[in-house]
Amino acid sequence: MNVFSNKEDALRKLFLFFAISVVVTLPFSVPLNGLSMILLSVVWILEGNWKNKYKKLLSNKIALLFIGFYLLHVVGLVYTDNVSQGLSELEKRVAFVIFPIVLSTTKFLDSRAVGKILGFFTATCFVAALICVIHALYFYFFQNNSSYLFYHKLGSAVNFDHAVYFSFYIGVSTFITITFLKSKWMTLSVAARVSYVLLVFFFLLFLVLLSSKTLIPTVFLLCGIFIWRTIVQEKGILTGMVAMCLFVAVSALVIFAVPNIKDRFREVLVDEYDQTNPLLLDDYEFYHFTGGAIRLAIWKMSVEIINERKAWLLGLGTGDSQDVLTATYKDKHVYPGDKALGIKGFLHYNAHNQFMQFYLIFGVVGLLLFLYILGLSFRMAFAHSTLFLLFLILFTCFSLTESTLHVQKGIVPVLFFTSLLAAKLPPSNVAPRGEGFWERILI
After folding, report:
1. Are residues 129 and 84 part of one domain?
2. Which of 86, 110, 115, 328 is 20 to 30 Å from 185 by CA-CA measure?
3. Which residue has the higher pLDDT, 258 or 81?
4. Do the beta carbons of residue 110 and residue 13 sit within 8 Å?
5. What is the crossing angle of helices 215-235 and 237-257, to 10°?
6. Nearest-5° angle of CA 339, CA 28, CA 139?
7. Is 70 found in the same domain as 27?
8. Of 213, 241, 270, which marks where a domain is finished?
9. Domain region containing 160
């Protein structure tokens, strides 16, 4: 009996260790992150208890839907032309199966373990951000180079060269910290309270330096609403309004006082080249694209592709979307880059919108299934978990301008945290009676 107890205790510790390894390796190493996923799955297999796991899986609707969505990728191989790319997509999206099954059926995932995993992820993001800031300040003060303080170059110190995905990680870490602060405020010492508040400000400042035009306003707005709701509950509406106004004013000052950040937002509203709206054009030769303009052009071309191929129902298939997009970019004379100057151009760009991406790949069937999974997740989070709700809102806004589930740095955190947070919710997914949307969010 003692042998079995020791074995279970060892497996429990290993499971927690490798679950933490998954989130700790996220900002630093894709290969190590993949290895952590494999080892976590091995421990889950050694755990056994298959009958109970089967029952848990059947009772977790979100897990079943994710598995079903992965099977849709398998079906998409039947009518795709580029089978090798389709198989690569299957391999890349294996997290759609691993995390929902492993995290929803294990007996080793209790509330304490979830708290540790979230805490390690936040600490890891803090360390990664701190390394990047120190690295950037070195170049600023000793090399007279300010470029490392902003956008993609800011993350180069930890080899995280995509500022938008790094912003997503920082946003999630911010929400973990503020929800923890709210739940533990009365039990924390004054020093601990100050430390966590400073951590939130550090994350928000680092987010501003990363310069994501989508995630900066999203995170700041959600933080402002969270502060409003918390203070209203404790101090009343008037105090909440004052706090909200101060937060918005300080946020706007920080964002628009820095020239580099201001220019990033300015390009959304002002076209320096006085060009025609890309939605009105059929050819983009010599067109000067901004981040917003290239997305509008891609979305227009994506809809045209679906219409021309009459692929509304099932899409292009698992492996064909990028090939077709790239061919269309070439036909429309989208800027191909300049190898001599080391400029990539836009021919490798995906749909830059997760909803449009799934529409391209799987048509209306895939898009509706994805929306149903997202809607069910929102319903559960809305009823039971503020952190899960904040995470889903952030992911949804992120997905409006990026194909978030197209690369591992997006697939793994989204599937991991969705499965992790959904696995610990109560069985009921019905929101409390008498509490509407705005009451839930603002009051």
Report:
1. no
2. 110
3. 81
4. no
5. 160
6. 65
7. no
8. 270
9. 114-270
